[in-house]
Design goal:
Hypothetical protein af1432, 12 helices, mainly alpha
């Protein structure tokens, strides 16, 4: 008989298809959540693990919404609630899992309050920096036809291409350099747990060196 966690994993396999937010990403976040939980006290894995597995369940829906109005964290929490009810999770666990999912986004005003939510936020953010972050960034760049250079970085970009919920309206107008300047460089100081901050600083150094080198190579200097 399938366990609840196995059922959730199978649901995620069906729901996720976009390249950088597929089941591989979900399982890396899941594994990092468990690792970070070993460095914290009183972590409820019955909340953290389902939240980690379900946190991006609405990602594909958000990606297909060209209006920029869909927030995959909010929608994902609603989708997760239906799944968790079907799996006979109690109301208290569902509420705590939903909080984790709602607050896992970087570009959001929703603050994680519980240790489980903070760990999920940190684990998800660590997956956007370092070597894996570089790989995922260029998977997305290829998926959406983004410009490789810094030439399209304009001052009014954020005001014209960012919706009220912080989501990009047109991902094709974004670029790896914009994501690096606007998000990646600031990730370590946004993290909550001590161990995640340590990992974040190491991963950001890898990314800093890469983008400095890439800029020079694009210019034909090195």
């Amino acid at each position: 008989m399938e366990t609840k966690i196995e059922k959730i994993k199978n649901i995620m396999k069906r729901e996720l298809s976009c390249s950088a937010h597929n089941l591989d990403h979900v399982m890396r976040v899941h594994n990092m959540c468990i690792f970070l939980s070993h460095h914290e006290e009183n972590v409820d894995l019955d909340v953290l693990i389902p939240a980690a597995l379900l946190h991006d369940i609405a990602r594909v829906i958000e990606s297909k919404d060209k209006s920029g109005g869909t927030d995959h964290a909010i929608l994902g929490s609603e989708m997760a609630e239906d799944i968790l009810k079907d799996l006979d999770y109690d109301d208290k666990k569902i509420k705590e899992i939903k909080h984790c999912i709602i607050t896992h986004r970087y570009r959001s005003g929703n603050e994680p309050k519980t240790i489980e939510a903070k760990i999920l936020f940190d684990a998800d953010k660590l997956d956007v920096i370092g070597s894996i972050g570089i790989a995922r960034t260029f998977m997305l760049a290829g998926q959406f036809g983004q410009n490789l250079s810094k030439d399209n970085m304009v001052d009014d970009y954020k005001s014209t291409n960012t919706s009220e919920n912080g989501r990009l309206k047109d991902v094709s107008k974004h670029s790896p350099f914009m994501e690096y300047e606007d998000k990646f460089k600031h990730v370590p100081k946004k993290l909550y747990t001590k161990k995640a901050k340590e990992i974040g600083e190491k991963r950001l150094k890898i990314m800093d060196d890469f983008f400095k080198s890439l800029e020079l190579e694009i210019k034909g200097i090195e």
